[in-house]
Each structure stands twice: as structure tokens, then as C-alpha cells.
Design a protein that fits this description.
- This protein is an alpha/beta fold.
- The chain folds into two domains: 150 residues, Rossmann fold (3-Layer(aba) Sandwich); 149 residues, Isopropylmalate Dehydrogenase, CATH 3.40.718.10.
- 40% of the residues lie in helices and 17% in strands.
- The strands form two sheets. A six-stranded mixed beta sheet has the order 8-7-9-6-5-10, with helices on both faces. A five-stranded parallel beta sheet has the order 3-2-1-4-11, with helices on both faces.
- β1, α2 and β2 form a beta-alpha-beta unit.
- α1 crosses α11 and α2 crosses α11.
- The longest helix has 20 residues.
- It is elongated, with a radius of gyration of 20 Å.
- It starts with 18 loop residues before the first helix and ends with a helix.
Length: 318
């Protein structure tokens, strides 16, 4: 696929149905600069190297130079292919990586081998951080053998117990990811434990309000319905059996979960019980942020970088 400029890109015509297509789409864009914080770990460095070889990113490694050189020798990687910025410790690495993004010297930020709180403190620092004034939320993307499309889920990683207003912001963040991957009008299921609205179950009332807002065109760029239980969101037969009339039609692309616990449990179940492969991005900052668990396979890092490069490129196009 020939490289295209941002202005030549048609975001509405190409829909990624699996991670190989996501990777192919990302390769069509100019190389993005990636600030990689504390990459002194095999899976992280492997994912970064694969992303570099694929032509997705020009990596800037910020970490312990001695450890990086030993690890590169072990993995037979040439550090001459990278820009290397020595750092004193994890805090220094996170701070300098965020500085690069804030100053426009990097297009995306990648978390390596450091504690998530340390990483996020640098991101959210009042004077030196890259907060944009928007809510930070996590968007997970799953490739499942049982589905003919990618499945998106938010937010299972950042916002503990979102209010209605925060759910709106989480939705906007997630839609940006869907649109960047070529899904022009994703079907969104606002999940709850039941389909009926009950004041005893706040998730159902929030879902009903969001559905009404969508019907009145206060929410755009998607097809949305709720409350929906998980089976009705993804299984057309379950929807038919329960005689539910829904524009999502049991074929949801994006699952909007009630809280972080339900999102985290569902996401890990898709991976560990469903055999799914996950990629993810943190949305709401000045640049896309790649944050993948250390227990995830290295492919997750590669595909997460591919997703974030598409988001970064789409922002430049808008």
C-alpha cells in the first residue's frame, strides 16, 4: 500500500476488521515519532522494534542506557536505529517522555516497564503534563475468533465509577478510535445487567438517557442504544428471542460499560477465556497514549502502537 498524506486519506471508506488490516492501514501513513518511557523489558522492546520495522514509528527510547544496551545485545537489536535519551530513573524517563509530547517532538507516548501510577503522574502533571482538559479514558480493542469484526470496549481502565457526563466523554473518546479505524458509524451498546429501566439500577437510567440523547441527535457519529445486556448487544438471536427492537441489532461494535470493574472483568475474560487478542489506547490527552499490561503478549504492544498512530494521523487531518 502506497504511503498517502493526511489530506489524501478518506477515513470513511476503509474499515479495519482485524489487526492485520489495522497494521496495513497504519503503514500507509508517514512515520510517527514515539516517545517510549522505560523500555527496559523484552516485550516492550520487541513491540517497538516490530513497529519500527513496519514503518509505523521512529522510536525515541528514554531509559537506563546500560540496561537498554544489554537488552538490545540479548535481542540482537541495533540501538543505532533509535534515538536514545539516557534517564536517571523511571520518574525522569516519564517526565522527559511527556516533555517531548508536550513540545511537539513526539506524536505518541508509549508506556514501558514502569509502574502505571508513576507514568500517569507525569501525564497529568499540572505544569508539565499533557492533559488536554478532556477526561482520560481507556479504549480496548479485541480481535476474537468468534466475531467477523473488531470489538471495542470502554472504559475498563481509567474512570472508576463514571457519572453520566463522564460516560458521554468516554463515548466521545471511544468514537474517535472507532472512526480512526475506519468505522464511520459504529453501533454502540450501553451495557447494563438488564434491558428494562429501573431507578434501582443506575446503569439502566444512564443508558436510557444516552439513548434518548442519541434519538434527539445530541450524540452523533454512531448508532446507539441502551440499556442492553451483553447477550442482546452482540447476539442477534438473543435480541430476537427477547423481542427487543434495537437499532444496534445485536451487532454492537462498541460496548460502553457501566464502571471500571465490569469493563476490566469483561475485557480480561475476552482475552483469557475467549482467546482474544487485545490492543488499547488511552484517550483524552494531547497525544494518544499506549498503555499495555506487562502480561499481554508482545503483539498487543505492536497493534496498540498501530492503533495510536492512526489516531495521531487522524488528528493531524482534522
Amino acid at each position: 500500500m502506497a504511503c498517502v498524506s493526511y489530506a489524501e486519506r478518506s477515513w470513511q471508506k476503509i474499515m479495519s476488521r482485524d489487526f492485520s488490516q489495522v497494521l496495513a492501514q497504519a503503514k500507509a501513513f508517514p512515520v510517527q515519532k514515539a516517545a517510549v518511557v522505560s523500555p527496559e523489558e523484552e516485550n516492550t522492546l520487541w513491540g517497538i522494534e516490530e513497529a519500527r520495522k513496519a514503518g509505523l514509528v521512529a522510536p525515541i527510547l528514554l531509559g537506563d542506557e546500560g540496561k537498554l544496551r544489554k537488552l538490545a545485545a540479548k535481542l540482537d537489536l541495533a540501538l543505532s536505529n533509535y534515538q536514545l535519551i539516557p534517564c536517571r530513573n523511571a520518574e525522569d524517563s516519564a517526565s522527559q517522555g511527556v516533555d517531548l509530547c508536550r513540545n511537539g517532538q513526539a506524536d505518541l507516548l508509549v508506556k514501558g516497564f514502569l509502574p502505571t501510577p508513576t507514568f500517569l503522574r507525569a501525564v497529568l502533571h499540572k505544569e508539565r503534563g499533557i492533559a488536554s482538559g478532556k477526561l482520560l479514558s481507556h479504549v480496548a480493542i479485541f480481535q476474537l475468533n468468534s466475531m467477523d469484526r473488531l470489538l471495542f470496549l470502554s472504559d475498563g481502565g481509567m474512570v472508576v465509577l463514571p457519572t453520566l457526563q463522564q460516560k458521554l466523554e468516554i463515548l466521545k473518546n471511544a468514537l474517535e478510535v472507532c472512526h480512526a479505524l475506519g468505522i464511520a458509524e459504529p453501533k454502540v451498546a450501553v451495557l447494563a445487567s438488564v434491558e428494562t429501566v429501573s431507578e434501582e439500577l443506575p446503569a439502566t437510567t444512564d443508558a436510557a438517557i444516552l439513548a434518548m440523547m442519541w434519538q434527539r441527535k445530541q450524540i452523533k457519529g454512531c448508532i446507539l442504544d441502551g440499556p442492553l445486556a451483553l447477550d442482546n448487544a452482540i447476539n442477534p438471536e438473543a435480541l430476537k428471542e427477547k423481542a427487543i427492537d434495537s437499532p444496534v441489532g445485536g451487532c454492537a461494535d462498541l460496548l460502553l460499560v457501566p464502571n471500571i470493574e465490569s469493563g476490566n472483568l469483561l475485557g480480561k475474560s475476552l482475552v483469557h477465556f475467549g482467546g482474544g487478542l487485545m490492543a488499547g489506547a488511552i484517550q483524552g490527552a494531547r497525544v494518544p497514549i499506549v498503555l499495555v499490561s506487562r502480561v499481554d503478549p508482545p503483539e498487543s504492544k505492536l497493534y496498540s502502537i498501530a492503533v495510536s498512530t492512526l489516531i495521531a494521523c487522524r488528528r493531524k487531518d482534522s
